[in-house]
Amino acid sequence: MKYGLKTMTVWAATLCLLVLAGCQTPSPAMSAAVGKPPAAASASLAANPLPSWREGAAKGRIVEFVEEVTRPGSVAYVPEKDRLATFDMDGTIYCEKPYWLAMTVALDELKTVAEESPAQRRRSPYREAFLYDPAHAPGAEADFVLQYFLLVLETPFAGWTQQEYQSHVESFAASQSDARFGILYRDQFYRPMVELIELLLENRFQVYIVSGSDQALVRAVCERQLNLPPSHYIGSQNALNVRYGKAGVEFLRQGASVPPSNVGDGKPQNIHYHIGQAPVLAVGNTSDDIGMLTMATSNPAYPLTLGVVIDHDDGEREYAYQDARLLDEASRQGWLVVRMKEDFGEVFLGPKR
Ligand SMILES: [Mg+2]
Known about the structure:
Largest sheet: 8 strands, mixed
Bound molecules: magnesium ion
Shape: globular
Order of helices and strands: HHHEHHHHHHEHEEHEHEEHEH
Distance between the termini: 40 Å
Structural class: alpha/beta
């Protein structure tokens, strides 16, 4: 939550009005505004919201935020039409190690094609797909991704229709498990984050997934687990050709992305293009989310907003990697840092197979 000069002005004006109206006691929202510790879960929310979260300051602050912005009469009340929440996907609601799912699916396809055709294996980018195997060279993924990222990601599905690609991702995620945890890719969501999205939907938030991954992949992996309409998945976009046929309109992937990529400044840009208004809650896990988080917490329309940062500090149950720039910015802007080790009672949605 961020209390800027404008916020304080709004609250000061509201307090004056309350006093003039003969109000004796500041509302709970006013108490929250002056920095009291988070209240217990509101009676208006479910008896046990966010059951996979450990009790503590992080859960308390989230529950209190939801209660305050949804309670009619609260100075922090946000009407349903403006009650927008945006979530990053990879590393925020879904495991992104050792690779993002988009990369994992692309590598698998390149290797499949290369194994069917040894001649292909000598060509780029099929050759590159064999250069890094997370099982044998843990920790080397960053260099690999930087070097071959676009080549690997864009090439294997050029010429496919969006529906073919989406179906391919769905069947891959439903049949393949990650090597370390043995969890189906379709179930590698963080259970506490799925619960948070459900809590927001129950409280009439409009939830959007705003991901750097391909938009069709985001739809393919999220639609089964999250109860959101297709228009609420905003990802990086592949350039498409259009084909009109008996099966309706088909979209053919050109194998090149359309700017702006949905990372960094691309997130607020795409939120502006696709949604047209700022969120009041944003959640992310890397410095690529700073723009989106800032867009939410500098929302000029409402005094109470919330930025949430997921800190991967649990190398045992997940992976330990931290984004120093994001954590610095979170400290500077007053964003809530959720520490996976301390705040997540459970980590993954899916069981081991
Ligand atoms: Mg992320």
